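Dear U.,

For the methods section draft, I wanted the exact inputs and outputs in one place so we can describe them consistently. I've listed the two proteins in the order they'll appear in the manuscript figures. Please don't edit the C-alpha coordinate lines directly; just add comments below if something needs changing.

First protein:
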Amino acid sequence: MIKIRDLFNLPVGYANHTAFDDPNNSLISILGATMGFNILEKHYSPDFGIERIDYHAAIGKDKMKEIIKLMELVLNIYGSGSIDMSDSEKKYGNIGPMKKAIVAKKDISKGMKLSFDNLWFKRTQEESYIQQNQYLKLNGLETVADIKSD
Protein backbone atom coordinates (compact mmCIF):
# COMPACT_ATOMS: atom_id res chain seq x y z
CA MET A 1 0.00 0.00 0.00
CA ILE A 2 2.81 2.39 0.85
CA LYS A 3 4.62 1.68 -2.42
CA ILE A 4 1.43 2.22 -4.43
CA ARG A 5 0.71 5.50 -2.62
CA ASP A 6 4.26 6.73 -3.14
CA LEU A 7 4.39 5.61 -6.77
CA PHE A 8 1.17 7.33 -7.83
CA ASN A 9 1.01 10.09 -5.20
CA LEU A 10 -2.72 9.48 -4.76
CA PRO A 11 -4.91 8.45 -1.84
CA VAL A 12 -4.82 4.69 -1.33
CA GLY A 13 -7.22 2.52 0.59
CA TYR A 14 -7.52 -1.08 1.67
CA ALA A 15 -10.05 -3.36 0.00
CA ASN A 16 -10.68 -5.99 2.67
CA HIS A 17 -12.36 -9.26 1.77
CA THR A 18 -11.70 -11.15 4.99
CA ALA A 19 -14.26 -13.91 5.61
CA PHE A 20 -17.23 -12.69 7.65
CA ASP A 21 -16.66 -15.42 10.24
CA ASP A 22 -12.89 -14.90 10.61
CA PRO A 23 -12.23 -14.18 14.31
CA ASN A 24 -9.62 -11.59 13.28
CA ASN A 25 -11.91 -9.73 10.87
CA SER A 26 -11.89 -6.45 12.81
CA LEU A 27 -8.13 -6.51 13.36
CA ILE A 28 -7.38 -7.31 9.73
CA SER A 29 -9.81 -4.60 8.62
CA ILE A 30 -7.97 -1.84 10.51
CA LEU A 31 -4.40 -2.80 9.61
CA GLY A 32 -4.32 -0.22 6.81
CA ALA A 33 -5.26 2.44 9.36
CA THR A 34 -2.19 1.53 11.45
CA MET A 35 -0.15 2.87 8.51
CA GLY A 36 -2.27 5.99 8.20
CA PHE A 37 -4.59 4.84 5.41
CA ASN A 38 -8.08 6.13 6.12
CA ILE A 39 -9.96 4.43 3.26
CA LEU A 40 -11.45 0.99 3.81
CA GLU A 41 -13.62 -0.89 1.34
CA LYS A 42 -15.67 -3.42 3.26
CA HIS A 43 -18.64 -5.51 2.16
CA TYR A 44 -21.79 -5.04 4.21
CA SER A 45 -24.97 -7.09 4.33
CA PRO A 46 -28.12 -6.52 6.34
CA ASP A 47 -28.49 -10.32 6.13
CA PHE A 48 -25.19 -11.15 7.82
CA GLY A 49 -24.03 -14.74 7.22
CA ILE A 50 -26.87 -15.67 4.90
CA GLU A 51 -25.66 -17.23 1.65
CA ARG A 52 -25.96 -14.82 -1.27
CA ILE A 53 -23.63 -13.03 -3.72
CA ASP A 54 -20.45 -11.89 -1.95
CA TYR A 55 -21.72 -12.95 1.48
CA HIS A 56 -18.38 -14.59 2.33
CA ALA A 57 -16.77 -11.20 2.98
CA ALA A 58 -19.86 -9.23 4.03
CA ILE A 59 -20.23 -8.17 7.64
CA GLY A 60 -23.26 -7.00 9.60
CA LYS A 61 -24.13 -3.73 11.30
CA ASP A 62 -22.53 -4.51 14.69
CA LYS A 63 -19.20 -5.59 13.16
CA MET A 64 -19.20 -2.51 10.89
CA LYS A 65 -19.73 -0.24 13.92
CA GLU A 66 -16.88 -1.99 15.73
CA ILE A 67 -14.52 -1.57 12.76
CA ILE A 68 -15.42 2.12 12.35
CA LYS A 69 -14.77 2.73 16.04
CA LEU A 70 -11.42 0.92 15.92
CA MET A 71 -10.37 2.74 12.73
CA GLU A 72 -11.18 6.10 14.31
CA LEU A 73 -9.12 5.18 17.36
CA VAL A 74 -6.14 3.93 15.32
CA LEU A 75 -6.16 6.93 12.98
CA ASN A 76 -6.33 9.29 15.96
CA ILE A 77 -3.34 7.52 17.53
CA TYR A 78 -1.49 7.53 14.19
CA GLY A 79 -1.93 11.31 14.09
CA SER A 80 -1.81 13.83 11.31
CA GLY A 81 1.96 14.21 11.04
CA SER A 82 1.85 17.54 12.86
CA ILE A 83 4.38 18.13 15.62
CA ASP A 84 1.77 20.07 17.59
CA MET A 85 0.71 18.30 20.74
CA SER A 86 -2.87 17.06 21.01
CA ASP A 87 -5.04 18.28 23.89
CA SER A 88 -4.58 14.96 25.70
CA GLU A 89 -0.78 15.13 25.23
CA LYS A 90 -0.76 18.68 26.62
CA LYS A 91 -2.86 17.61 29.61
CA TYR A 92 -0.66 14.58 30.30
CA GLY A 93 2.66 16.29 29.71
CA ASN A 94 2.19 19.50 31.62
CA ILE A 95 3.40 19.21 35.20
CA GLY A 96 3.27 16.72 37.99
CA PRO A 97 5.21 14.22 39.98
CA MET A 98 6.94 11.56 37.91
CA LYS A 99 6.47 13.51 34.68
CA LYS A 100 9.67 14.43 32.93
CA ALA A 101 10.56 17.96 34.00
CA ILE A 102 12.84 20.38 32.20
CA VAL A 103 15.98 20.69 34.33
CA ALA A 104 19.52 21.99 34.00
CA LYS A 105 22.04 19.38 32.83
CA LYS A 106 24.73 21.23 34.77
CA ASP A 107 25.01 24.41 36.83
CA ILE A 108 24.04 27.43 34.73
CA SER A 109 25.36 30.83 35.81
CA LYS A 110 23.34 34.03 35.83
CA GLY A 111 23.55 35.75 32.43
CA MET A 112 24.12 32.52 30.43
CA LYS A 113 21.78 31.57 27.63
CA LEU A 114 19.61 28.48 27.95
CA SER A 115 20.21 25.96 25.19
CA PHE A 116 19.59 22.38 24.24
CA ASP A 117 23.13 21.70 25.48
CA ASN A 118 22.41 22.78 29.06
CA LEU A 119 18.77 21.68 29.46
CA TRP A 120 17.20 18.24 29.39
CA PHE A 121 14.22 16.24 30.60
CA LYS A 122 14.43 14.22 33.77
CA ARG A 123 11.88 12.39 35.94
CA THR A 124 11.48 14.17 39.25
CA GLN A 125 9.52 13.64 42.44
CA GLU A 126 8.57 17.33 42.63
CA GLU A 127 6.13 19.18 40.43
CA SER A 128 7.58 21.72 38.04
CA TYR A 129 5.87 24.97 37.11
CA ILE A 130 7.59 24.84 33.71
CA GLN A 131 5.51 22.79 31.32
CA GLN A 132 7.15 20.27 28.98
CA ASN A 133 5.73 22.00 25.92
CA GLN A 134 7.65 25.17 26.84
CA TYR A 135 11.01 23.51 26.10
CA LEU A 136 11.49 25.05 22.66
CA LYS A 137 10.60 28.52 23.98
CA LEU A 138 13.41 28.36 26.57
CA ASN A 139 16.16 28.02 23.96
CA GLY A 140 18.17 31.25 23.78
CA LEU A 141 16.69 32.92 26.87
CA GLU A 142 19.18 34.55 29.24
CA THR A 143 19.10 33.48 32.87
CA VAL A 144 18.42 36.11 35.55
CA ALA A 145 19.74 33.92 38.37
CA ASP A 146 22.07 30.98 38.91
CA ILE A 147 20.42 27.62 38.21
CA LYS A 148 21.73 24.50 39.95
CA SER A 149 22.04 21.19 38.11
CA ASP A 150 18.82 19.17 38.14
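Second protein (the one for the lower panel):
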Amino acid sequence: MSVSGDPHGADPQEFLDEVHSFEFWFQAVEGYLHGHPYGHQPQQTEPALDPAEREALITTLCNYCVGETAALEGASGMISFAPNRRHKIFLATQVADEARHVEVLVRRLTDLGVADPEQEIQRRANHRLLTFRNRLLKFVYSRDWEAALFAQNVILECMEFTVFQAHARRSDPVTSEILEGLIKDERRHVGFGENELGRQLKATPIKRAHLQHIRTELDPLILHSFEELSIDLGMPASQRPELGRAYLAAVGRLGFGA
Protein backbone atom coordinates (compact mmCIF):
# COMPACT_ATOMS: atom_id res chain seq x y z
CA MET A 1 0.00 0.00 0.00
CA SER A 2 1.23 3.52 -0.73
CA VAL A 3 0.56 6.71 1.18
CA SER A 4 -1.39 7.97 -1.80
CA GLY A 5 -3.99 5.23 -1.31
CA ASP A 6 -6.56 4.86 1.45
CA PRO A 7 -4.67 3.72 4.57
CA HIS A 8 -7.96 3.14 6.44
CA GLY A 9 -8.70 0.18 4.20
CA ALA A 10 -5.48 -1.59 5.15
CA ASP A 11 -4.70 -4.24 7.71
CA PRO A 12 -4.31 -2.56 11.16
CA GLN A 13 -0.59 -3.28 11.31
CA GLU A 14 -0.05 -2.02 7.77
CA PHE A 15 -2.06 1.09 8.60
CA LEU A 16 0.14 1.84 11.63
CA ASP A 17 3.32 1.18 9.65
CA GLU A 18 2.07 3.63 7.05
CA VAL A 19 0.94 6.55 9.22
CA HIS A 20 3.98 6.33 11.51
CA SER A 21 6.47 6.23 8.64
CA PHE A 22 8.90 8.91 7.55
CA GLU A 23 7.30 8.89 4.10
CA PHE A 24 3.86 9.66 5.51
CA TRP A 25 5.34 12.35 7.77
CA PHE A 26 7.21 13.96 4.89
CA GLN A 27 4.10 14.14 2.70
CA ALA A 28 2.06 15.46 5.64
CA VAL A 29 4.39 18.37 6.42
CA GLU A 30 5.58 19.26 2.93
CA GLY A 31 2.34 20.97 1.99
CA TYR A 32 2.42 23.54 4.77
CA LEU A 33 6.19 23.95 5.08
CA HIS A 34 6.99 24.57 1.42
CA GLY A 35 7.47 28.28 0.80
CA HIS A 36 7.27 29.07 4.52
CA PRO A 37 10.81 29.60 5.82
CA TYR A 38 10.69 29.93 9.60
CA GLY A 39 7.00 29.09 9.59
CA HIS A 40 5.47 31.88 7.53
CA GLN A 41 5.40 33.36 4.05
CA PRO A 42 8.28 35.82 3.56
CA GLN A 43 5.91 38.43 2.13
CA GLN A 44 3.75 38.39 5.25
CA THR A 45 3.58 41.94 6.63
CA GLU A 46 5.13 42.42 10.04
CA PRO A 47 2.54 44.10 12.27
CA ALA A 48 3.10 47.25 14.30
CA LEU A 49 2.91 46.24 17.95
CA ASP A 50 2.75 48.66 20.82
CA PRO A 51 5.31 48.08 23.61
CA ALA A 52 2.86 46.25 25.89
CA GLU A 53 1.74 43.91 23.09
CA ARG A 54 5.32 43.19 22.13
CA GLU A 55 6.31 42.39 25.73
CA ALA A 56 3.34 40.07 26.20
CA LEU A 57 4.06 38.29 22.92
CA ILE A 58 7.73 37.82 23.78
CA THR A 59 6.85 36.33 27.18
CA THR A 60 4.36 33.97 25.58
CA LEU A 61 6.77 32.85 22.86
CA CYS A 62 9.51 32.29 25.46
CA ASN A 63 7.22 29.90 27.30
CA TYR A 64 6.30 28.15 24.08
CA CYS A 65 10.04 27.57 23.66
CA VAL A 66 10.15 25.97 27.12
CA GLY A 67 7.36 23.56 26.21
CA GLU A 68 8.72 22.74 22.76
CA THR A 69 12.22 22.18 24.13
CA ALA A 70 10.78 19.81 26.74
CA ALA A 71 9.03 17.88 23.96
CA LEU A 72 12.24 17.82 21.91
CA GLU A 73 14.23 16.42 24.82
CA GLY A 74 11.48 13.99 25.75
CA ALA A 75 10.88 12.59 22.27
CA SER A 76 14.59 12.17 21.56
CA GLY A 77 15.14 10.36 24.86
CA MET A 78 12.18 8.02 24.36
CA ILE A 79 13.51 6.61 21.09
CA SER A 80 16.00 4.37 22.92
CA PHE A 81 13.30 2.51 24.88
CA ALA A 82 10.29 2.73 22.54
CA PRO A 83 8.79 -0.78 22.32
CA ASN A 84 9.10 -1.33 18.57
CA ARG A 85 10.55 -0.05 15.31
CA ARG A 86 7.36 1.75 14.29
CA HIS A 87 7.30 3.82 17.49
CA LYS A 88 10.98 4.67 17.17
CA ILE A 89 10.42 5.95 13.63
CA PHE A 90 7.43 8.06 14.64
CA LEU A 91 9.36 9.58 17.54
CA ALA A 92 12.18 10.41 15.14
CA THR A 93 9.71 12.39 13.03
CA GLN A 94 8.47 14.09 16.19
CA VAL A 95 12.02 15.06 17.13
CA ALA A 96 12.32 16.75 13.73
CA ASP A 97 9.00 18.54 14.31
CA GLU A 98 9.95 19.74 17.79
CA ALA A 99 13.39 20.91 16.68
CA ARG A 100 11.76 22.94 13.90
CA HIS A 101 9.24 24.39 16.36
CA VAL A 102 12.02 25.60 18.66
CA GLU A 103 13.94 27.05 15.72
CA VAL A 104 10.88 28.85 14.33
CA LEU A 105 9.91 30.29 17.71
CA VAL A 106 13.44 31.48 18.46
CA ARG A 107 13.57 33.13 15.01
CA ARG A 108 10.28 34.88 15.79
CA LEU A 109 11.80 36.24 19.00
CA THR A 110 14.76 37.52 17.00
CA ASP A 111 12.43 39.18 14.50
CA LEU A 112 10.71 40.91 17.42
CA GLY A 113 14.04 42.43 18.42
CA VAL A 114 15.18 40.04 21.15
CA ALA A 115 18.99 40.22 21.07
CA ASP A 116 19.66 37.08 23.14
CA PRO A 117 16.69 34.65 22.89
CA GLU A 118 18.31 31.98 25.10
CA GLN A 119 18.82 34.43 27.93
CA GLU A 120 15.33 35.87 27.46
CA ILE A 121 13.73 32.40 27.53
CA GLN A 122 15.55 31.62 30.76
CA ARG A 123 14.52 34.92 32.32
CA ARG A 124 10.84 34.71 31.38
CA ALA A 125 10.26 30.95 31.73
CA ASN A 126 7.13 29.99 33.68
CA HIS A 127 8.30 28.05 36.74
CA ARG A 128 5.37 25.63 36.48
CA LEU A 129 6.35 24.72 32.94
CA LEU A 130 9.91 24.14 34.13
CA THR A 131 8.60 21.85 36.87
CA PHE A 132 6.53 19.98 34.28
CA ARG A 133 9.61 19.59 32.08
CA ASN A 134 11.57 18.11 34.97
CA ARG A 135 8.80 15.61 35.72
CA LEU A 136 8.54 14.60 32.06
CA LEU A 137 12.29 14.03 31.81
CA LYS A 138 12.25 12.02 35.03
CA PHE A 139 9.81 9.59 33.35
CA VAL A 140 12.11 9.48 30.33
CA TYR A 141 15.27 8.86 32.37
CA SER A 142 13.52 6.04 34.26
CA ARG A 143 12.46 4.54 30.90
CA ASP A 144 8.78 4.46 31.91
CA TRP A 145 7.20 4.23 28.44
CA GLU A 146 3.54 4.75 29.37
CA ALA A 147 4.26 7.59 31.82
CA ALA A 148 6.59 9.42 29.43
CA LEU A 149 4.20 9.02 26.50
CA PHE A 150 1.24 10.18 28.61
CA ALA A 151 3.07 13.23 29.98
CA GLN A 152 4.49 14.22 26.61
CA ASN A 153 2.13 13.18 23.82
CA VAL A 154 -1.11 13.58 25.73
CA ILE A 155 -0.76 16.15 28.53
CA LEU A 156 1.94 18.45 27.08
CA GLU A 157 0.78 18.17 23.47
CA CYS A 158 -2.87 18.72 24.44
CA MET A 159 -1.80 21.84 26.32
CA GLU A 160 0.17 23.19 23.38
CA PHE A 161 -2.56 22.33 20.88
CA THR A 162 -5.18 24.11 23.00
CA VAL A 163 -3.09 27.23 23.67
CA PHE A 164 -1.83 27.55 20.09
CA GLN A 165 -5.39 27.39 18.76
CA ALA A 166 -6.57 30.11 21.12
CA HIS A 167 -3.53 32.29 20.41
CA ALA A 168 -3.72 31.88 16.61
CA ARG A 169 -7.26 33.27 16.62
CA ARG A 170 -6.21 36.52 18.27
CA SER A 171 -2.60 37.07 17.21
CA ASP A 172 -0.87 39.13 14.56
CA PRO A 173 -0.73 37.59 11.04
CA VAL A 174 2.90 36.42 11.25
CA THR A 175 2.57 34.72 14.63
CA SER A 176 -0.81 33.29 13.67
CA GLU A 177 0.60 31.69 10.52
CA ILE A 178 3.47 30.17 12.50
CA LEU A 179 1.09 28.75 15.09
CA GLU A 180 -1.22 27.25 12.45
CA GLY A 181 1.71 25.19 11.18
CA LEU A 182 2.62 24.07 14.69
CA ILE A 183 -0.99 23.06 15.38
CA LYS A 184 -0.94 20.63 12.44
CA ASP A 185 2.09 18.90 13.96
CA GLU A 186 0.63 18.85 17.48
CA ARG A 187 -2.52 17.17 16.18
CA ARG A 188 -0.41 14.33 14.80
CA HIS A 189 1.59 13.99 18.04
CA VAL A 190 -1.54 13.88 20.19
CA GLY A 191 -3.07 11.27 17.88
CA PHE A 192 -0.05 9.01 18.30
CA GLY A 193 -0.17 9.28 22.09
CA GLU A 194 -3.92 8.72 22.33
CA ASN A 195 -3.91 5.73 19.98
CA GLU A 196 -0.92 4.02 21.56
CA LEU A 197 -2.11 4.52 25.13
CA GLY A 198 -5.65 3.54 24.19
CA ARG A 199 -4.34 0.18 22.98
CA GLN A 200 -2.14 -0.20 26.06
CA LEU A 201 -5.00 0.50 28.46
CA LYS A 202 -7.33 -1.86 26.64
CA ALA A 203 -4.77 -4.66 26.82
CA THR A 204 -3.59 -3.90 30.38
CA PRO A 205 -6.27 -1.96 32.32
CA ILE A 206 -4.16 -1.98 35.49
CA LYS A 207 -1.92 0.68 33.91
CA ARG A 208 -4.79 3.17 34.13
CA ALA A 209 -4.25 3.75 37.86
CA HIS A 210 -0.59 4.61 37.24
CA LEU A 211 -1.49 7.16 34.57
CA GLN A 212 -4.33 8.59 36.65
CA HIS A 213 -1.84 9.23 39.47
CA ILE A 214 0.44 11.04 37.01
CA ARG A 215 -2.43 13.13 35.74
CA THR A 216 -3.45 14.10 39.30
CA GLU A 217 0.10 15.34 39.84
CA LEU A 218 0.54 17.19 36.53
CA ASP A 219 -2.90 18.69 35.89
CA PRO A 220 -2.47 21.51 38.45
CA LEU A 221 0.79 22.58 36.78
CA ILE A 222 -0.95 22.73 33.40
CA LEU A 223 -4.09 24.49 34.62
CA HIS A 224 -2.14 27.16 36.51
CA SER A 225 0.03 27.65 33.44
CA PHE A 226 -3.12 28.17 31.37
CA GLU A 227 -4.21 30.93 33.71
CA GLU A 228 -0.89 32.74 33.39
CA LEU A 229 -0.64 32.23 29.63
CA SER A 230 -4.19 33.50 29.10
CA ILE A 231 -3.27 36.71 30.96
CA ASP A 232 -0.20 37.13 28.74
CA LEU A 233 -2.44 36.58 25.69
CA GLY A 234 -4.77 39.33 26.88
CA MET A 235 -7.78 37.03 27.08
CA PRO A 236 -10.76 38.46 28.98
CA ALA A 237 -11.26 36.83 32.37
CA SER A 238 -14.58 35.37 31.20
CA GLN A 239 -12.81 33.42 28.42
CA ARG A 240 -9.84 32.10 30.39
CA PRO A 241 -11.58 28.97 31.73
CA GLU A 242 -12.16 27.86 28.13
CA LEU A 243 -8.49 26.86 27.79
CA GLY A 244 -8.70 24.60 30.81
CA ARG A 245 -11.96 23.04 29.69
CA ALA A 246 -10.59 22.34 26.20
CA TYR A 247 -7.51 20.70 27.70
CA LEU A 248 -9.54 18.58 30.15
CA ALA A 249 -11.81 17.43 27.33
CA ALA A 250 -8.84 16.41 25.20
CA VAL A 251 -7.20 14.39 27.99
CA GLY A 252 -10.60 12.99 28.94
CA ARG A 253 -10.85 11.19 25.62
CA LEU A 254 -8.69 8.48 27.18
CA GLY A 255 -11.33 7.94 29.82
CA PHE A 256 -9.67 9.68 32.75
CA GLY A 257 -11.79 11.70 35.13
CA ALA A 258 -10.81 15.24 36.04
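Candidate sentences for the figure legend, describing the second protein: The chain has ten helices and no strands. Residues 11-33+46-252 form a domain with the Ferritin fold (CATH 1.20.1260.10).

Thanks,
Y.
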